[in-house]
């Protein structure tokens, strides 16, 4: 089994495709699709390659995407169940949700 700690995980915003992408040792491991609406980044779908499921790749993607949303001064609307569950498990990101919202 591969040593997951030695992998290089890189997350980039790909505005041309409206998605954040995560690369595992240079290979596309998944993505989180979004659309922007009134200063909020609405996450609509997340997909992780089955080869990388259960290895923290999705969590790394969600964390870095939400960190980027925060750095841009935007809010987040998690219409995607994966991003919604991540925020629920990591309340430090709850401030990105619209007022009165608890997720999708």
Write a compact overview of the structure shown:
By secondary structure, this protein is an alpha+beta fold.
Structural class: alpha+beta
Number of separate domains: 1
Radius of gyration: 13 Å
CATH domain class name: Alpha Beta
Give the overall form.
globular
Average predicted confidence as pLDDT: 92
What profile does the largest beta sheet have? 5 strands, mixed
Q: Which CATH architecture is right? A: 3-Layer(aba) Sandwich
Helix-strand sequence = EEEEHEH
- The fourth-level CATH homologous superfamily is Gcn5-related N-acetyltransferase (GNAT)
Taking the alpha carbons of the first and last residues, their distance comes to 36 Å
Outline the low-pLDDT stretches.
none
Number of helices: 2
Provide the CATH topology. Aminopeptidase
């Amino acid at each position: 089994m591969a040593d997951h700690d030695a992998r290089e995980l890189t997350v980039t915003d790909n505005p041309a495709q409206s998605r954040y992408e995560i690369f595992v040792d240079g290979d596309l491991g998944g993505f989180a699709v979004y659309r922007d609406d009134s200063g909020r980044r609405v996450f609509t779908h997340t997909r992780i390659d089955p080869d990388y499921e259960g290895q923290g790749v999705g969590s790394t993607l969600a964390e870095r995407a939400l960190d980027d949303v925060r750095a841009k001064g935007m809010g987040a609307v998690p219409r995607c169940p994966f991003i919604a569950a991540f925020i629920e498990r990591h309340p430090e990101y709850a401030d990105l949700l619209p007022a009165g919202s608890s997720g999708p």
